[in-house]
Design goal:
It contains 3 helices and 4 strands, in the order βαβαβαβ. Helices cover 25% and strands 18% of the residues. It binds NADP nicotinamide-adenine-dinucleotide phosphate.
Length: 110
């Protein structure tokens, strides 16, 4: 990703679920320019700060609770005040343990 967007500002990427395993893995896989700013949004400032330190780039943390819908407009206003993000990764959620299939598959009918 180029480090400037159409507005001429530096690129910004917003990760909703800023400590999410898959969200951070997507960020890593994107191979962003070193100066691209990442905004890590979530509920736990300390864990967000810790995740941000590992990214080795400009990082901002923002408080975001997906369940607190009354706070979302203020959150969006806060994030966008410094420029609308060029990319939003929505990784907020709960990974439910997946059961392994048991038994063996029946052979298909001849
Ligand atoms: N990992 C995978 O391979 C994979 C594959 C496909 C889909 N997914 C889906 O991707 C989502 C994230 O999975 P993950 O493996 O990254 O899980 P994870 O590491 O446990 O991350 C979940 C993230 O969601 C945040 N979160 C949960 N409830 C929130 C809320 N109410 N408001 C704000 N943030 C909230 C958590 O923040 P806190 O630290 O504050 O709890 C954490 O940052 C899940 O829905 C999962 O089903 C994951």
């Amino acid at each position: 990703m180029s480090n400037t967007n159409a507005s001429g500002r530096g690129s910004r990427v917003l990760l909703l679920g800023g400590t999410s395993e898959i969200g951070l893995a997507i960020l890593s896989a994107l191979d962003l320019a070193a100066a691209t700013e990442v905004i890590l949004a979530g509920r736990d400032p300390q864990r967000l700060e810790a995740a941000g330190k590992a990214l080795n780039r400009p990082v901002t943390v923002a408080r975001y609770d997906a369940m607190d819908t009354g706070s979302h407009q203020a959150f969006a206003d806060q994030v966008c005040a410094a420029g609308v993000p060029d990319l939003v990764i929505a990784a907020t959620g709960i990974l439910i343990p997946q059961e392994r299939p048991s038994g063996t598959c029946a052979a298909p009918p001849p």
